[in-house]
Write a structure and sequence with these properties.
By secondary structure, the chain is mainly alpha-helical. The protein has 5 helices and no strands. Helix 1 runs antiparallel to helix 3, helix 3 packs antiparallel against helix 4 and helix 4 packs antiparallel against helix 5. The two termini are 29 Å apart. About 6% of the residues have low confidence.
């Protein structure tokens, strides 16, 4: 069990760092596409004629076959937000395990039944549900604000279902925390 916990701690910290890095790069790309839009349209992107549908679901291609810089910037911004949410999920997973081991500043002993663990579990559920909300917001923005017509307004329900399950799990941990406090008060 200790090896699995160590592996999960290590993997969650690595994934958190990678998500922050990806979010920073995507945010930088979004800023670059906004600041240097004219240069990119004039020099770089007009040499990249792509067939319809070659963008792989991101709707980065206009009907004339050239990439739309506004849609690239919008997609990069979406990637930055999504990577930030992923980083927060992995951060909370790391902190939950550290707190349960009694090794974080939130810790109140070596028990999984603590208020901060319940809060962090609830936050993971909220972040998971937020992923779907962000996807819907950005795909709607691409479709209506920028005018890209080949964006599907579909919602993946996987993260919503998983988020709701984690929120339910946090309620069970909240109940366990109350039982732990009652048992500690009797002793």
């Amino acid at each position: 069990m200790k090896n699995l916990t160590k592996f999960t701690l290590c993997l969650s910290k690595i994934m958190e760092c990678l998500c922050w890095l990806a979010g920073g790069l995507a945010g930088l790309a979004a800023v670059l596409f906004v600041v240097a839009r004219d240069w990119l349209e004039d020099t770089l992107l007009f040499s990249m004629s792509l067939p319809e549908g070659a963008a792989g679901g991101l709707a980065l291609v206009l009907t004339n076959g050239y990439p739309c810089v506004a849609s690239i910037a919008f997609s990069a911004l979406c990637g930055a937000v999504m990577a930030g949410l992923g980083a927060m999920i992995f951060r909370n997973i790391y902190l939950i395990l550290k707190t349960a081991q009694g090794e974080s500043k939130f810790s109140k002993g070596k028990t999984p039944f603590q208020k901060d663990i319940t809060r962090m579990l609830r936050e993971v559920g909220i972040f998971l549900i937020s992923i779907t909300a962000v996807e819907l917001f950005f795909s709607t923005g691409l479709r209506f604000l920028i005018g890209v017509d080949n964006v599907e307004l579909s919602v993946e329900m996987d993260s919503v279902i998983l988020g709701l399950m984690v929120i339910c799990l946090s309620q069970f941990f909240d109940y366990g925390t109350q039982l732990q406090q009652d048992a500690d008060g009797l002793l």
